Design the sequence.
């Protein structure tokens, strides 16, 4: 009979760093609130979460890497908002931050969870930051709890 392993959604005793971008902070503060609320509702103590602000999404991978290397956290949650403008710059930001976050996770062996909204416009971003389409910050936080526990389970 095959064994199945999965991460439980109990956050008590786990430690998290939340890296959040100031760029588009109208949206990112909502993502942060969603993440904080989800962590608390899953049993994470307020004192077990550190919030670290970056200027924009592009700076998130480096800061996440430093935090991951500190060995202080069970997972890192990355929050940001890339909103398409008239230039291709946002496309570049979105793909770089995605690639960077994935690399940090594989390089450090720690769950580094992507809670970055990529939206065509502000309205779409709002929908994903606590309105009709939920809150991507909370989804990322729950994913971080599950991954932190899953890693403990399989190790
Ligand atoms: N940063 C974001 O977080 N979101 C964006 O939509 C964005 N756009 O479109 O430019 C953005 N740019 C700033 C970037 O992350 C860096 O902070 C900046 O380029 C300095 O390195």
Sequence:
């Amino acid at each position: 009979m095959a064994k199945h392993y999965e991460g439980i959604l109990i956050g008590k005793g786990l430690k998290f760093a939340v890296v959040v971008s100031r760029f588009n902070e109208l949206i990112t503060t909502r993502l942060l609130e969603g993440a904080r609320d989800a962590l608390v509702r899953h049993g994470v103590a307020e004192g077990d979460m550190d919030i670290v602000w970056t200027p924009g999404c592009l700076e998130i991978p480096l800061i996440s890497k430093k935090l991951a290397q500190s060995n202080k956290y069970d997972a890192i949650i990355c929050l940001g908002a890339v909103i398409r403008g008239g230039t291709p710059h946002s496309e570049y930001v979105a793909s770089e931050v995605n690639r960077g976050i994935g690399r940090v996770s594989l390089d450090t062996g720690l769950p580094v969870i992507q809670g970055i909204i990529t939206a065509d416009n502000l309205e779409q971003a709002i929908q994903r930051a606590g309105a009709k389409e939920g809150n991507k910050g909370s989804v990322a936080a729950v994913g971080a709890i599950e991954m932190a526990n899953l890693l403990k389970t399989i190790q």
The longest helix spans residues 89-108.
